[in-house]
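REQUEST
  id: r-88c1
  op: predict_structure
  target: RCK C-terminal domain-containing protein
  payload:
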Amino acid sequence: MVKGSQAEGKRIKELNLPELCTVGLIVREGELIPAVGDTKLRENDRIVLVGRSKDVVSAIDLFRKS
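RESPONSE
  id: r-88c1
  status: 200
  body:
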């Protein structure tokens, strides 16, 4: 995830993800972080999205610079 993205600083439960897409895992500074609703996303987190292909593609924009 890049600095300035819509998702930066938000909790997973605050994201407006498509219905059949979810955050499966976060990689932060080489550590695996479980993806739970209260997890706050940070710059440089690597986000693993799980879901239907078209929903995952749609969600990717949340993690790019806005």
